[in-house]
Amino acid sequence: MPSPFSAANSKSIREMFAGVAPRYDLANQVLSLGLDRSWRKYVCQTVAAWKPSSILDLATGSGVLARELATMNAESLVVAADFCIPMLKVARKRKVDHLVVADGLALPFADASFDVVTVAFGLRNMAFLERALSEMARTTRLGGHLVILDFSLPSGLLLPAYRLYLHLVLPRLAGWLTGEPAAYEYLGESIERFPRGSAMTALLEQAGFANAAARQLSGGVVTAYSAQRA
Question: With 126 labelled, which of 30, 87, 107, 192 sits at a CA distance of 20 to 30 A?
């Protein structure tokens, strides 16, 4: 299944994130109204309960989640991977160890390398979701776990107001914060088209995972998906 980026090449996506890297964290905090902290906390607590020996944080970006995973899993090896070098430079300043330049569609890791794989707000940006999920399954050991955190759409009365924010307010505000308005023009469309709920859990099971589940956060603005490698 192609993502909204399938028509674009990897170079243009990489350049887009490179352009916003210096102010990426600030934009996330402002645009999420500070809720991004609670979303990462949920992921970290979920992962810590599994007591993993090794964790891959894929599409790590500026390394915020990887740093928090390492803090809550002090005995675990946390590898942080991304295909955008300017983003990884920000992660290095955050003192994230074990940084790897890697494309999510062709990971440079052996089969069954990790107990847990996490990807926060990154899967939606990969050109082919099924290929990316297949790579995550390949690099997760049998019985290991996957956690995906990404934007979704709320239901009910919140949806119209959220769509107004998503398509009109957010791109303008993000462009002002980062100085790269074009980088956020895609965001609303990508969220609208990204599989959610049962559609995503079905893709996870097709990729080789079992016990796939979806947990809505913040009224459904974000969804956390978890699954176990079968």
Answer: 30
